[in-house]
Structures are given as structure tokens and as C-alpha cells.
Write a structure and sequence with these properties.
The complex is a heterodimer. Chain A is mainly α. Chain A has helices at about 5-25, 30-75, 80-95, 100-110, 125-150, 155-160, 165-195, 210-220, 225-255; strands at about 110-115, 120. In chain A, helix 7 packs antiparallel against helix 9 (about 225-255). Chain B has one domain: MetI-like fold, CATH 1.10.3720.10. The N and C termini of chain B lie far apart (about 50 Å). Classes of the chains: A mainly alpha, B mainly alpha. The interface between A and B is large, with 44 and 40 residues.
């Protein structure tokens, strides 16, 4: 990471710490060190909660990317039926609120599957991953379609002249070129997903926000409210800001103009 | 209306497809109130975020040193943290702290106000970036021409740069505002009785989760579709020939 990014991060840390100090000064007696020490004490648990967020976001991204690639290619299919269905799927999952889709999956998917007489449990976190993967699918489908359509039509014609079939053209000519252009928007989708991941705490999956609330309940100290939530914000910021910087740099490098 | 009520009741009894918010007065009130709150959250935070975006972009355009840095910090902080945690930070941490600082016995701001504030700041951060990109797309020569005509910097910004920048930023602005409308559902988490919250109350009483989910998805599809359509109309209505695509 380059220097200005670090400076920005340091400034952000300073502000969070200042926020942490504010309520302490407001409620006379309590000293800053104790509040800070309490934060340190709970840090491992909060990091564990954050790791769950990370895991959920990576799993959702993986599932959503695979599904989204299929739907995205479907959007430029030569068959009208496939094309129209894919476009509808894309629009539907892009326009639906993330939280509603999450509720949909968590409340309406069964608690367990029965396969060949075996009962396989289907826990809330797995349903949460699927609930987040659906909107990711819609967004990735749009990224894939945009990437493929950004390749000049001359490439298609040249492949045609070389007697490549449609699938060969896609696989050997279009996709390798489009992949590079899809990378920055795909990373943007991941950033949006990471921002949406704490929503799983609303539908009963334990993540960093759940941990933060438990910590606050356990300590029962109003002076800790800002530091604990501030720390959760800081964790997300420290993870997402470098990704966003990287995306912007890639965007600049791959810009066509 | 009575005929529809009756047929929906029999649909509920016969097929277990319960659209209780149509024939039940209590549920209908909840549902309509939910729509009203969703509309309030959306409209208020759209207006607020547009203002925040315009102010932020203006500050960066003028290049005030300290204010620019502050705006940059605001944008980075709100773009790179989850809106839900921002909302929690405002409502559960900043709210009680402010209340104790002011020594008030009642919370200083209601949950609806905090939701609007949090959504405004969240979407506003994206709007700053969107407007900035739009302003950067205005050719330097156009600004110089405006200055040559005797407009001062403020006038040049208001009358020349902003109208042109608005036109280039409309497509990404549409995306962000649609995202904002979808994000109003987050207010569920702090018990603002918007549509998702109202629906959850309805389905926990009538056990018609599936039906309410379908209604919710259709509702947001319609709202987003309508909004995008209106933005498209607006974009075409204010299009300047030869500017943009």
C-alpha cells in the first residue's frame, strides 16, 4: 500500500480513537486506559466475528460468480428464450433489496434436506451465504455481459473468418480479452458484497456485529458504545479501503481512452 | 371492493395464499404505513444525499485545502464501511452519547431521524464521487470561457459547471439512488416501521411469509423500475445536443 493510503488510514484511526475518548470525558470518572484495555481484551473475539464476515463474503462471491457467469453468458445467447430469461433473472436480482433476498432465503429455505434417506442440516449461515450469493449473481451477470460486449465486433468477425464456432470464439477469443476488463467491476461487486455481509446478523447469523452487541451487553458500559462500534467500522475500513484503491488503480490502467 | 375482499378471503381459506393486508383492516394500516415510511426515508435521504454530494463536490472543485481533505476523509470513511454498521454506530452509539452529553432525559433524535441521517451520509459519500467525476468531465476551456465572460468562480460553478456535470453524472446517479432506495430496508434493524418491518409484523402474525416476500419483491421491483424510468425521462428531457452521448 502506498503512503497517502496509510496516512488516510492513520487519520481515520485517530478519529475513531478521538470518538472513543469523547464519551469517556463526558461521563466524568472513567479513565481512557480502562476503556482501551477492555477493547484490547475483546479484540480477539471481535476479530473472530470479522473472520466469519470474511468467510461468508468469500463463499457468497464464489457461488455468485459461478452462477453470474452462466447467467451473464446467457444474456448474449443466440437463443431468444435463454437470452430473455437471463435478462429477467439479472434485472430481478439486481433490483431487489439485499436484505429482502436474505430474509427470503433464511426464512423460506428448509432447515434440513433429506437425500437418500439421510437428513442433512441446513444451518442459517449456509442460507445466508445463498441469500447474499443471489444479488451477487445478478450483479456479476451484468459485469460479464458488459465485459463481453465491450470487445469490438471485429474480433467476432475475425474469429468467424477463422471458422471458429460460437462457443470456440467465446472461449478462445472473447473471454481471454474480456476477463481483464471485467476484473475492476467484479472487484467493485465484491466490495459491495462485503458492505452487505453484516446484514446476516439481522437474520440470526453470528458475525462481527453480533459479537459487538454481545460484548456491549456483557460489559454494560455506555462509555464502550462508540469504541466497540467504531472498532467494527475500522475493521471493515482496513479491509475494504485497500481493495477499493486497488480497483481504482486497475480501472485507470485498463481505461480505454 | 367487498367482492375482492371475499374472493381473497376464500383464496386464503382454500389455497393458503393469504394476502391479509388487503382484507384485514389492521394489516392494511400497517402495510400502508410501511409504504409511507419507505417513501419518507427514500425521499428525505435522496434530497439530503444530493445536497451532501453537491456541497462536497463544490468544496473539492474550489480546492479549499482543509475542507477538501475533510471531504475526502468523509467519502473514504463512508464508502468503505458497511451501511448497517454505520446505522448501528449512529443509533446505538452516537445517539445515547449525544443524549448524555446534552443531559436530556429523552433521546435527542428519533430512530427515523437517525435512519434518514445515516442513509443521507452513506449515499452522499457516493454522490460526492459521482459529481466530482461529472465536474472533471467538463472541459477546462468551458470554465475558462465562463470566467472570460466575467462570471466569478461561484457563478461559473452554479451556472456552467454544475448543469453540465449533472448531465454526465445522471446514469451513475441513477444507480446510486436506486441502491439508496434498496438500502432503506436496513432501517428495519433499528425498528423503523418501513415496509420490510411492517411486512415482518404481518407475516409473524398471519404466517404468510411467502406471500409477503413475493409482495415485497414485486413492490421494490415496481418502485425501482418506476424510479429508473423517471430518471431516464429526466435525462432525455434535459439532454444538451452535442454534450455526452
Amino acid at each position: 500500500m502506498s503512503k497517502p493510503g496509510c496516512a488516510r488510514l492513520r487519520l481515520f484511526v485517530a478519529i475513531v480513537l478521538a470518538c472513543a475518548a469523547l464519551p469517556v470525558s463526558a461521563s466524568e470518572g472513567a479513565a481512557t486506559p480502562s476503556s482501551f484495555a477492555t477493547l484490547i481484551k475483546w479484540l480477539p473475539l471481535l476479530l473472530k466475528g470479522f473472520a466469519i464476515d470474511l468467510g461468508i463474503s468469500v463463499a457468497s462471491m464464489a457461488i455468485g460468480t459461478v452462477l453470474g457467469a452462466v447467467v451473464g453468458v446467457g444474456q448474449i445467447s443466440s437463443r431468444a428464450g435463454v437470452r430473455r430469461t437471463s435478462q429477467w433473472i439479472t434485472q430481478f436480482f439486481r433490483n431487489a433489496p439485499w436484505l429482502v433476498l436474505l430474509f427470503f432465503c433464511v426464512l423460506l429455505l428448509p432447515y434440513h434436506f433429506t437425500v437418500f434417506g439421510f437428513s442433512i442440516p441446513f444451518p442459517a449461515w449456509a442460507k445466508g451465504i445463498i441469500g447474499l450469493a443471489l444479488p451477487v449473481m445478478g450483479n456479476v451477470a451484468e459485469v460479464v455481459r458488459g465485459g463481453i460486449q465491450s470487445i469490438p465486433s471485429g474480433q467476432w468477425e475475425a474469429a468467424d473468418a477463422l471458422a471458429l464456432s460460437r462457443s470456440q470464439t467465446l472461449r478462445l477469443v472473447i473471454f481471454p480479452q474480456a476477463l481483464k476488463r471485467m476484473l475492476p467491476p467484479w472487484m467493485n461487486v465484491y466490495a459491495v458484497l462485503m458492505m452487505a455481509t453484516p446484514l446476516v446478523s439481522i437474520v440470526g447469523v453470528e458475525d462481527s456485529v453480533t459479537v459487538a452487541r454481545s460484548v456491549l451487553a456483557a460489559e454494560g458500559s455506555p462509555a464502550l458504545l462508540m469504541p466497540v462500534y467504531g472498532l467494527v467500522l475500522l475493521l471493515f475500513f482496513a479491509y475494504c479501503a485497500p481493495i477499493a484503491r486497488c480497483t481504482r488503480r486497475l480501472e485507470a490502467r485498463y481505461a480505454i481512452a | 371492493m367487498i367482492g375482492l375482499d371475499e374472493s381473497l378471503r376464500s383464496l386464503a381459506a382454500g389455497f393458503g395464499f393469504t394476502l391479509s393486508f388487503v382484507f384485514d383492516d389492521y394489516d392494511r394500516t400497517l402495510f400502508l404505513q410501511g409504504i409511507a415510511y419507505t417513501a419518507l426515508l427514500s425521499v428525505a435521504s435522496i434530497v439530503g444525499s444530493l445536497l451532501a454530494g453537491a456541497v462536497g463536490a463544490y468544496v473539492q472543485f474550489r480546492g479549499f485545502r482543509f475542507a477538501s481533505r475533510l471531504t475526502d476523509l468523509y467519502v473514504q470513511a463512508f464508502r468503505n464501511t458497511p451501511p448497517l454498521v454505520q446505522l448501528y454506530f449512529f443509533y446505538f452509539a452516537l445517539g445515547p452519547t449525544l443524549t448524555s452529553v446534552f443531559g436530556a432525559s429523552q433521546p435527542v433524535l428519533s430512530n427515523v431521524t437517525w435512519a434518514i441521517l445515516a442513509l443521507t451520509l452513506y449515499a452522499g459519500a457516493f454522490n460526492v464521487e459521482i459529481f466530482r467525476a461529472g465536474i472533471e468531465a467538463v472541459p477546462r476551456t468551458t470554465v475558462e470561457a465562463a470566467e472570460a465572460l466575467g462570471l466569478n468562480q461561484g457563478q461559473a460553478f452554479r451556472r456552467v459547471v454544475l448543469p453540465l456535470a449533472l448531465r454526465t453524472s445522471l446514469p451513475s446517479l441513477n444507480n446510486n439512488l436506486v441502491n439508496l432506495i434498496k438500502t432503506t430496508t436496513n432501517a428495519y434493524a433499528i425498528a423503523v416501521p418501513e415496509l420490510l418491518y411492517a411486512s415482518s409484523q404481518i407475516w409473524s402474525e398471519n404466517l404468510n411469509t411467502f406471500e409477503m416476500m413475493i409482495i415485497l419483491l414485486v413492490f421494490y421491483m415496481l418502485v425501482v423500475g418506476l424510479f429508473s424510468w423517471a430518471m431516464g425521462r429526466f435525462e432525455r428531457a434535459i439532454a444538451v445536443p452535442g454534450w455526452g452521448r
